[in-house]
Amino acid sequence: VRDCIQKTLTEWSSKIGQDQNQETLEVLECTVAQAIEKINPEERDELKVSAKLFIVGSNSSSIRDAVDLACSALGVAQLDSVIIVPPPVEDGTNLSLEYLQPYWKELENLVQNKKIVAIGTSDLDKTLLEQLYLWAQAEQPQFSQPVLVGEFLQSPDHLCDYQCFMNTERGQLQELLCEASFQEVLQDSIQNVKANKWIPLWLLRYSVIVKSRGIIKSKGYIIQAKRNAS
User: How does it assemble (predicted)?
Assistant: First the structure.
């Protein structure tokens, strides 16, 4: 993740020139257009576009922002599947259904608005996943990357159509790309950016898979960060 961000920022910075004062802008959109392969509409039915979303902040609207940016970047109207990693809880607090509910409601809204086809979760234990499945008002989780796959080998009847996958990316965004590491990449890649003011909000990893052959056609990351005013 760090290498991808650093390469993108370095190339982007070299193209815009060093005379631009980034600190005067409200939004910096750091994109290298030729590095993103938009999907040909004629090939869309042959491809599956999946995403895994890591969130830091407590704002559930980040989910919509991430999905909209991914759709725009790839040139598609909707994503076929989205797995969400629960945002971190405060120290001494356990992850609970009440904490997950606003995020799941946002995912349900995106399914109902046809921005996502199927939704799932990551890093939940069996008890919490069952609670979420039974509570979900419009869309139950259709797949998961659980903490322990063995817990799901004997699942209750209401999870019989549920898909369980091995989780090769356990952990939250801070473990994949901590704040200090992100700021270090910014400092090394862009001059005069005051990197210590920037905090990552979410990271989305996408994959475009050829359905008939099960191979990855393209993959990449989209990240959003905010700049503290202080």
Answer: Heterodimer of a catalytic heavy chain and a regulatory light chain.
